[in-house]
Amino acid sequence: MADKSQNWILIVTAQTPTNIAVIKYWGKRDETLILPVNDSISVTLDPNHLCTTTTVAVSPSFEKDRMWLNGKEISLSGDRFQSCLREIRSRASDVEDEEKGICIRKQDWDKFHVHIASYNNFPTAAGLASSAAGLACLVFALAKLMNVKEDLGQLSAIARQGSGSACRSLYGGFVKWVMGNDASGSDSIAVQLANETHWDDLVIIIAVVSSRQKETSSTTGMRESVETSPLLHHRAKEVVPKRILQMQEAIQNRDFPSFARLTCTDSNQFHAVCLDTRPPIFYMNDTSHRQVLIINCIEKWNRSEGTPQVAYTFDAGPNAVLIARNRNVATLLLQRLLFYFPPHPDTELNSYVIGDKSILQDAGIEAMKDVEALLPPPEIKDNVPSQKYKGDVSYFICTKPGRGPVVLADESQSLLHPKTGLPK
Ligand code: ADE
Fold first, then answer.
1. Of 13, 124, 218, which is best to mutate to test ligand 1, by the most ligand atoms within 8 angstroms of its C-beta?
2. Complex ipTM, two decimals?
3. Where is the Diphosphomevalonate decarboxylase-like N-terminal domain (predicted)?
4. Which phi and psi (to 5°) does residue 315 adopt?
5. Which of 332, 377, 394, 399 is spaced 20 to 30 Å from 409 by Cα?
């Protein structure tokens, strides 16, 4: 047993981004190890706008493993947390800090308990892949605390067992989750295709939609798709392997037209698989008018320009993720979005468009009167009245591709008290 009379405490804080898949992960071939039926590719989002911060601490005085999420204590008993804790502990190395009188031998790590505090800087229920950022951050922070020597690829295989798409949050920029072949899952890891500086023209605008809790969880939905959808198996075997190669090439060459075409087509096929599932999964159910409007708006605009300006992608929820080829296009996109989805009169413009607000300034929008003065997009025919959906979008987040996990060395950024190991 750890000597409880000792009162030292060792603390690490890390910050990890979330990610959005442009070639979707949908379907597991192993539910316990979380092994997918196809490769997927994602863009890591700038952690300045969307991220998880997690502090982990170890002390001989801790009585049991405990976790607080967004300030509330939660249970760590779930299989997914337990897998990550077990896998990291089993890879821990010696940690010594003579000044503090700390010495933990690798074989003793399972005698010590940890405290974990995690905070998402965006609403956890907003459907913005919080578990991806959260589990990636947990694994990354624990690995630093326990002096785990494994590289990011090997850590990604651990994060994957917490939440599949978490493995892609261990890198910045553009990331591929390789499905792997091994039954152990050791080769089902994330690899970085390009870092966040490789294609930094891209601007990402997320329309966050207020919605009821998802009717079908992703885990259940995926299982039902694997069991009943012939399209899922065709997609995994015949479609995605070719699409992955094309997407890698598009990213390498910064070829926006190909990137956009592949992103939109793959999002639409993912939703087709959901409809092909028995019983069908309607992720676009009560919000479909919004998605259809956004898809039509982007498709029409792209066609009128002769080449794609914006890509759209929808996950298993109502939020739209829109990727503009550059800042100029992002400005025009935001004008279109605010034209169709103006804020509710009670909403402050400042809290309606968050993240990189300079795009709002570039769009010449400083006050509600500027939103009201927006004209219909020129590609819309004059004789078609344009319907508006006030209050339909909760808020927009303007962001861009961003970096991978980092350790936050400043004590002020820790979520746990340095003396008690309890949330600050
Ligand atoms: N699920 C959602 N957010 C999370 C977080 N920050 N850590 C662990 N699990 C989560």
1. 124
2. 0.93
3. 17-190
4. -85, -165
5. 399
Q: Is 76 in the pocket of ligand 1 (CB under 6 A)?
A: no
Contact present, 87 and 148 (Cβ < 8 Å): no
Least confident of 136-150, 236-250, 324-338, 374-388: 374-388
The dihedral over CA atoms of 77, 80, 84, 86, expressed in degrees to the nearest 10, equals 50
In percent, the amount of the chain with pLDDT more than 90 equals 83
> What is the overall mean pLDDT for the chain?
93
Would you say how long the chain is, in residues? Answer: 424
Encoding tokens for residue 56? 């982990």
List where CATH 3.30.70.890 sits in the chain.
Answer: 203-399
DSSP 8-class letter at 254: T
Q: Where in the chain is the domain with CATH 3.30.230.10?
A: 10-195+406-413
- The topology (CATH level 3) of 10-195+406-413 is Ribosomal Protein S5; domain 2 (3.30.230)
Structure tokens at 119: 């905070």
pTM of the model: 0.96
Q: What distance in angstroms lies between residue 364's CA and the mean position of ligand 1's atoms?
A: 37
Specify whether domain 203-399 bears CATH 3.30.70.890: yes
More confident of the two residues 320 and 129: 320
Residues 258-284, mean pLDDT to the nearest whole number? 94
Characterize 134-157 residue by residue with b for buried, 16 or more Cβ atoms within 10 angstroms of its Cβ, and e for exposed.
bbbbbbbbbbebbebeeebbbbbb
The C-alpha atoms of residue 418 and residue 424 are separated, in whole angstroms, by 9
Per-residue pLDDT at 238: 98
Q: Alpha carbon 378 to chain centroid distance?
A: 33
From 320, 268, 267, 324, select the one nearest 301 (Cα to Cα): 324
